[in-house]
Design goal:
Elements (H helix, E strand, L loop, with lengths): L1 E4 L4 H12 L5 E4 L20 E3 L7 E2 L1 H11 L9 H27 L8 H20 L10 H16 L5 H4 L1 H8 L5 H4 L7
Parallel strand pairs: 1-2
Antiparallel strand pairs: 1-3, 3-4
Bound molecules: glutathione (GSH).
The site of glutathione has 13 residues, from α2 and α3.
């Protein structure tokens, strides 16, 4: 199995952490930003990471939440579970992904030349991020420890926000969220995939 990935991508990092936590021994193929057919050299028709090549007879999986659900089935304990808890976990995972989406969109708006910045859109993404941080902080017990299917996505999204949208000081805004996040830094799977050193 091959995972096309790069730890700077919060979407790819989720899959890397999950694979490592579960000891799946998946081959990690580092994505190339300048590939003629996208980051995965055509393995993902959308050109994005992550993408998971399972075998020659199975279509390549893409979209990080689909990949994470697949990886979760390969080794116990199954994090996504079933019943009402499953929907809570998928919701939390989607909240984390939504934060990464807003950061990604903010980043691509803000790297344009100054005269092409669309202030309204920058504000829109910033407001979404602030609301999402407040939502996480207001229900801190629901985030859980150690790793769950949902919080995996949230941890990767918070680190990505610190990296690409540092004007949102989420640690200052939500000290309890900062304390919760700090618990995850003890894991090798967290530290060994942390790529935001400047
Ligand atoms: N919804 C997708 C988003 C993946 C995504 O946007 N990945 C970015 C890296 S952070 C990417 O590959 N961008 C390359 C491009 O769009 O060309 C997922 O969850 O996998």
């Amino acid at each position: 199995m091959k995972l096309h990935c790069h730890p700077i991508s919060p979407y790819a990092r989720k899959a890397m952490i999950l694979s490592r936590l579960k000891g799946l021994g998946i081959d990690e193929v580092t994505a190339k930003a300048d590939g003629a057919r996208g980051y995965t050299d055509g393995a993902n028709p959308l050109g994005k990471i992550p993408a998971l090549e399972i075998s020659n007879h199975t279509p390549v999986l893409f979209d990080s939440s689909v990949i994470c659900e697949y990886l979760d089935t390969l080794q116990s304990p199954i994090l996504a579970q079933s019943g009402p808890e499953r929907w809570a976990q998928l919701r939390l995972h989607a909240l984390g992904d939504g934060i990464s989406d807003a950061v990604y969109n903010y980043r691509y708006e803000s790297v344009r030349p100054d005269n092409l910045h669309w202030a309204k859109m920058l504000k829109r993404h910033t407001t979404a991020l602030e609301m999402a941080v407040d939502a996480l902080a207001s229900d801190i017990d629901a985030l859980g420890t150690p790793w769950t299917f949902g919080n995996l996505s949230v941890i990767c999204a918070l680190d990505y926000m610190s990296f690409r949208a540092p004007h949102i000081d989420w640690k200052e805004r939500a000290p309890d969220l900062m304390a919760w996040h700090a618990e995850f830094t003890a894991y090798a799977a967290y530290r060994d995939t942390y790529a935001y050193e400047t």
